[in-house]
Amino acid sequence: MAELAPIIQLGNPTLRQKAAWVENIQDEHIQQLIDDLITTVVKANGVGIAAPQVAESYRLLIVASRPNARYPYAPEMEPKAMINPQIIAHSTEVVKGWEGCLSVPGIRGFIPRYQTIEVEYTDRNGQLQTQEFTDFVARIFQHEYDHLDGIVFVDRLENTLDMMTEQEYQKRIVNNA
């Protein structure tokens, strides 16, 4: 049964480590971790989560875009587990967009990301997948992928003026959209 995992916050050293390659996808611990991550991201009103955010330093992330209180305009998709993911191609176009993070509560940043990416990953059944993501879903993937290399979104800020509190974000950006 899936459980809600505690989300670690900025300052915890695990968030700054390069995560380990998942060797045995069918390992019971990895399969349970996937279920726990999906439960956790849904309950926390996130749109993605990476294993290092729950103090599990593995190259595993979940993309789970759907409208919620933190991202009311997010597109709807089924949560997808991506194991040992890699970006294999990306657009030259970079766009800035607002991001938050479950491990950096209360802060939003206007972060540059590739508009379109092509990714390769192994699914939870051990099958190699290749997929293209654009716009918001590409942003989610890149944000979570950064966690696998010990990078958090505030590291990608171009200017501290591109940052605001969650409260101001909800008031200025979400309510004026």
**Percent in strands:** 25-35%
Kindly give the count of domains. 1
- In order across it, which strands form the biggest sheet? 1-2-3-6-7
Assembly category: single chain
- Could you describe the largest sheet, including whether it forms a barrel? 5 strands, antiparallel
Structural class based on helices, strands and sheet pairing: alpha+beta
Number of DSSP-assigned strands: 8
Helix content: 10-25%
CATH structural fold name: Peptide Deformylase
CATH architecture tag = Alpha-Beta Complex
Element-level helix/strand string: HEEEEEEEHEH
**For this structure, what is the CATH homologous superfamily?**
Peptide deformylase
Instruction: Tell me the radius of gyration.
Output: 15 Å
* General form: globular
Low-confidence segments, given as residue ranges, are none
Task: Throw out a few tags for this protein.
3 helices; alpha+beta; three-stranded antiparallel sheet; Peptide Deformylase; 177 residues; 8 strands
Brief synopsis:
The chain has 177 residues and is α+β, with helices and mostly antiparallel strands.
Task: Explain how this protein is built.
The chain is an alpha+beta fold and 177 residues long. The protein has a single domain (13-174), classed as Peptide deformylase (Peptide Deformylase). The chain has helices at residues 28-43, 135-148, 166-174; strands at 48-50, 60-63, 80-90, 94-101, 104-114, 116-122, 128-134, 163-165. It has a 5-stranded antiparallel sheet with strand order 1-2-3-6-7, with helices on both faces.
